[in-house]
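CORE FACILITY INTAKE
Project code: CF-77B
Contact: R.S. (postdoc)
Sample description: multi-component assembly, two entities in total
Requested service: structural model of the whole complex
Turnaround: standard
Below are the sequence entries exactly as provided by the requester. Do not edit them.
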Amino acid sequence: MAPVALLFLLALAAQGSGAFGTRDETTDLLLVAAGLITVIPLLMFLEAGRRLPLSTVGLIQYLTPTLQFLLAVVIYREDFTAIHLAAFGCIWLALVLYTADAWLHQRRRGVPGFTSAGAGFGSVRLFRCGANGHRHEATHQENPVRHSRIADSDRHPFRCGNRQLGRCWTPKAFDVGLQRLLAIGLLIAIILFAGLFHSVSRPLHLISRGLHEQDPRILDSLASEPTEFGELARLIDDFYQQRQHLNAEIQERRQTERQLRLFSSAIEQSANLVMITDQKGTIEYVNPKFVQVTGYTEAEVIGANPRILRSGRTPREHYEHLWRTITAGGEWRGELHNRRKDGTLFWESTSIAPLRDEAGIITHFVAIKEDIPHRKRIEAALHASELKYRNVFATIGDALFLIDNRDGRILTVNPAACKLYGYSRKELLALKDIDLAASPTIDAELPRTESRRLTDRSSRRLTDRSHRSKNGTVFPVDIWVRHFSYKGHTITVAAIRDIRHKRSRSEKSSV
Amino acid sequence: MALVGVLNALGCFSIWGLFPIYFKILHQVSALEVLAHRIVWSVAVLLALILWQGQGQALLTAIRDPRRLRFYLGTTLLISVNWLLYIWAVQNNRILEASLGYYINPLVNVVLGVLFLRERLNPYRWSAVAIAAVGVLILLMGHGVFPWISLALALSFGSYGLLRKKDGHAAMLGLCVETGKACAWRPG
């Protein structure tokens, strides 16, 4: 075999894949030492065989697998399960039986098959213990006298002259030996059962307790063991951990779900129109209010572009600005004049904002629109009314003043007032009501004070008051007073008519 | 003298029992390569020993006998397989199976003796073999895996013992021829 092995090693070395010389020095040294490590125990074995009866060697030989067993289980932590224990238990029991039998047989008779195995045992001598007291036969004749003194009832095996055969057994001695053997067997059985308890009963107990009390900490000590029960404990531990994670996740999901349902119903039931599009502007969602206001069904708008709502009344630049703003990530607010499915137009106040994913990339746009036909109508009506009254205010011949009732400041005047008093509008707005009276008497404040007595919607005429214009001319006036509430305080409306002409006419007529 | 024998026995069986440590250290070297090194280096050591003891002539005589050489080839193959299996088992974390193999070795010897040497067994030995078989069966049923490493180890070593039993040659010489399969035999 050596040439084959040598060729094999040389081939490996030639390939450069051999371990020898390619790794560290320790490996090389260990490989070279393989020779000694192989030869030395062999020589020791031969020496032991030469000096000891085979039965003894046969007993000591179990040291090898026992050491291997301990190495495997204690040092290298190979899996050692209850199954292994049971199997090894059987093997050990069988070995006890076999070895005891072989040992006793060899001692009693000398078994040729057993002793001839070793070359170092020299000549084999047989010695038979006969049942009738003639316990020595021709093979052993050195000391017949000594042997004749031995009785069957002797408790101890006697030593015969030949050292190599060792001791011989009387029936009594054999019984004693058997009892001792039984004791050893019992000891082994106890050790076995202790092992069984340690590796089976104890972990089972721990596992059942850990499961019963739902406390994985009980299994902690077990989980580090390389046995089936250790594996079970680890699995149970994993199970508990997973359950914990699962519970936490379920809680979290419930929370999220509740929130989502809330958000969803908020959008579904919103009084505003909600529309969600993807980043290209294709509609992905509209809420019921949208359907109600626009007249389009969900199926018609989903997948379509919001362009379908355009009426043509909103300038193109408006849309371009909108799109630029939201694609740049900004929020757009404004009003759009849109068209329903049935062709009627409506105003909406719209705010559009982008939605971003975790990476910050825009994925959707959300448009929230408020249907504003009512507001627009009011605005238009207000506008018309305002227009009407502004014209009335501007064209009427009497001087009209709005006066703040708290301090008499003039708030608004009409062009007729400027003409009557000779002040510019700006100058009049810097004055108070008393500045217009001819003499600063209590009388001058009358329109204001008068108004206090007036209820809303009623007016009063104050006749024959004297007012002064910018150039000092004093002239008689009639005043109509009315008041209204505005922002929590009272405003006096005073319409002032110059009555000089009337008076001169009446003077003329009286003259 | 018996003490020396016991010490020798303890020594050799301990070394064999602790072999896994050695193979574990060499775990990055393949089992076949370790085996090759074992063979080559032990032959070197044994040749040196034989020459030192002046038994070179006996070795030559043994080698020249073709019948004996064939016989040694058989034993050599058996022991090589045994060693290889053992190294492989250790390196693949199956020391426990190896241990089982060495435990059942004597019982396998008994079975081999019955089969090939027509030895007769008493009830004790029969029951011992039966109980061991139950042990193997437990492994088979419990893990669904046949402990082939254990049985192959025991069988290869048992057959080796069986063959050796038929040859009464001087042990060291036998060992040398086995490990060496020396100079006369060449492949091809």
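Facility notes:
- Chain B is about 80% helix and 0% strand.
- Chain B has a mean pLDDT of 79.
Invoice: internal transfer
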